[in-house]
Amino acid sequence: MSNSPLFGILLSLIAFEIGVALHKKWRYSLVNPLLIANVLIIGFLCVTGTSYDTYKVGGDYISFFLGPVTVVLAVPLYKQLQNLLKYWFSILMGIFVGSLTSIFCVIGCSKILGLSNTLMLSILPKSITIPMGSVVSEQIGGIPSVTIIAITVTGITGAVTAPIVCRFFRIKNPVAQGVATGTASHALGTSRALEMGETQGAMSSLSIGIAGVFTAIVAPIILNVIA
Amino acid sequence: MRILLQLALIIGISLIGEILHRYAGVPIPGNILGMLILLLLLCVKVVKLDHIKEVSDFFLKNIAFFFLPPSIGIMAAGEEVMCRWPVLLIMCIALTIVTMTATGWTVQLLAKGTKHKARGVKTEGAKNEQ
Questions:
Q1: What is the pLDDT of residue B121?
Q2: Quick one: which of A42, A116, A131, B14 is 20 to 30 A from B27 by CA?
């Protein structure tokens, strides 16, 4: 069994479906399918004494699709593009300022807290969508698996706190609420933004792609300048 | 379009992105270049949403699944992650709120100059396409 990719693929499918079922049942952002499946798989591998490499044989077949999956992100971005027109300047500026804030805060906090360089680079792209964040992480020298977990935690935080943050910091403009949620917490935050309103949802989902591309271009440049 | 043909189109665009990144030295990750290429093709209407509907719907609906295997790699991530995960967790949570606030304030401040209310915003641009 240890050499068959079927094992890893089947385990992934079952774990993820359990995660989806639990998420459907409770409908709460904290019950995230990816995190549940993560706990289940790691738990299963530990309990049965199966190595990560055995799982990875099958897992790699699934990871292969990351490239095409990212390409397809052009579809939601294209659908939202017309919403950019009216407020393009404030939206783009908001996304730029937000993405830069995220990047510089990660660098600053990591230095203060004494995190290693690798770890800092791994969480640097934490606010952008997973397919983009994981390749950015790889490109700048981070560990993609850490990035993916950081991105998921960030997304869940956004989904749980978006309405509270907007109220507390007096972000009242619906466009601003949407762009803030999407830029800070990608697709998971967008799921919550959609509940806040149509405008918020549209703006949030527009921001995911733009923030991702911006971070992918700017992060390596900033790192070069600092280093 | 047939599903296999849709898949061929999307994988073909991925491949072009990879080639541009690896061999032409464009400093943006290949799959993001691929996304930009598809976006461009959609904008100039060479590719229509209908052309890739089934495959793009499938990928987008199940997107999180494809990240499951790479995220399990955390098992092999090493000691520092295991020791410092509380710090990382708090950082991720706190910085999400900081980023959200910075973004929201910027948009709100700049949008004040614009008179219009955000009523014209549509949830799904796709409606106009069909």
A1: 54
A2: A116
Q: How far apart are CA A212 and CA B101, in angstroms?
A: 18
pLDDT in tens, A73-131: 899 889 888 888 888 999 999 999 999 999 999 999 999 999 999 999 999 999 999 88
Structure tokens at A3: 């050499």
| CB-closest option in B42, B56, B100 to A180 | B100
Complex ipTM: 0.88
Q: B92 and chain A: CB distance < 8 Å anywhere?
A: yes
- The pLDDT of residue A83: 81
Mean of pLDDT values over A145-151: 92
Rounded to whole angstroms, how far apart are CA atoms B23 and A197? 44
Tell me the C-alpha distance between B103 and A103, whole Å: 13
Report the SS3 class of residue A142. Answer: coil
* More confident position, A227 or A179: A179
CA angle B6, A213, A155 (to 5 degrees): 90
Query: What would the mean pLDDT of B22-33 be, rounded to a whole number?
Result: 87
Checking if the pLDDT of B129 tops 60, the result is no
| DSSP H or E stretch at residue A103 | helix A88-113
A215: amino acid identity, one letter: T
Residues 43 through 62 of chain A touching chain B, CB cutoff 8 Å: 45, 52, 55-56, 58-60, 62
- Reference B108, options A89, A167, A86, A171; nearest CA is A171
Of B100, B67, B91, which Cα lies nearest the Cα of A16? B67
Going A81 to A87 to A92 to A98, the CA torsion angle's sign is negative
To the nearest whole angstrom, how far is the Cα of B73 from the nearest Cα of chain A?
A: 5
